[in-house]
Amino acid sequence: MGRVVTLRDTESRHERNLTRRSDARPWTILCAVDRSPGSDRALRRAAHLARQLNARLCVLHLIDVEKPTPLTPEHSERTESLLTARLETVSRILGTAPSLLVRRGDAADAIAAVSEEMDADLLVLGPQRARHHVFTADTPARLLRSAGRPVLIVNREPKGPYRDLLLAVDLCASSARMLRTVNAFGLLEGTRATVMHAFQVPYRGMVAQAGIAETHVERYALGWNVARFRELLAYVDAAGVDASQLRILLEDARPLRAVRRSVHRTRPDLLVLGTRAHTGIRRALLGSLAEDVMREISCDVLVVPPPVRSSPVGEHADPAHAPAAQIH
């Protein structure tokens, strides 16, 4: 059975930012946009979040590397007109003008570089795009690996603050980091939040095939589910989140299918999950739940990756100061 173990005492620079609600440095949100309509949605969501968090908002406009250098007068005029209209919209929401940067080049590389320069707390993007757009289908996944900062993919038109959240938890350090991040951003305040955990009862199929009475099989499964439910409550509490305000949902399925089911069941405005630091062959073989979710799920998706740093002992050496769960 799994059990919650320790609280870690050290933290990365970005994770120190997440605990900083009242010091002199404000939150910083970086919203990366191109000329696509989806970027309008992302920008409006970023503006609403900046207002909610009293955060500094920076808009990064990216220019396709395939455009001629210098830009033609016609293209420059269209871009300037578009940016002016967008900044006016943001200013109306915020009550102040955001800062603006313009960069040419690969989207993931440019966003990662700027986010490091300004020590951004949150990166906001519009929907993933097909080829021939500045943002391509692999931009968010590359950005998660290179920037090491939370990435919000805005798929839907903003209609006010997020009200229904679905938090996918797997009892690893990545989920503890995700819970702390969501809590620090204040996204759990005044919302209906569900913690979803994919859990398949060990050996249930073998027990059922052994000819044991169904009532005993169900009792066996119930025992495992109750134990895992209690473990989730303790895990969430250790991450600094009030579990009594959350709905706990156990899905009897593998992770991606469990996410699909729970999204269909709860109809969230925002799905949140953490990612682990897989590299090399392990990453190629296992793939990434976050990448599959970002491709498939139509609601907004917030992904919290591990900080970008090398570690000789992997995921559980992450410098976060929240619980790391180990399954025995």
Description:
This protein is of the alpha/beta class and 328 residues long. Helices cover 41% and strands 20% of the residues. It is built from 11 helices and 12 strands. The longest helix has 25 residues, at 214-238. The chain is elongated, with a radius of gyration of 21 Å. The N and C termini lie close together (5 Å).
Briefly note the structural class of the backbone.
Answer: alpha/beta
Unreliable runs: 1-11, 281-287, 310-328
Reported for the largest beta sheet, the result is: 10 strands, mixed
Give the quaternary arrangement of the chains.
single chain
- Cross-sheet strand order for the largest sheet: 4-3-2-5-6-11-10-7-8-9
* Cα gyration radius (Å): 21 Å
Number of helical segments? 11
Shape-level CATH architecture: 3-Layer(aba) Sandwich
The dominant shape is elongated
The CATH topology annotation reads as Rossmann fold
**CA distance, first residue to last residue:** 5 Å
Query: Using DSSP, what is the number of strands?
Result: 12
Strand content: 15-25%
Count of structural domains: 1
- Please write the CATH class name: Alpha Beta
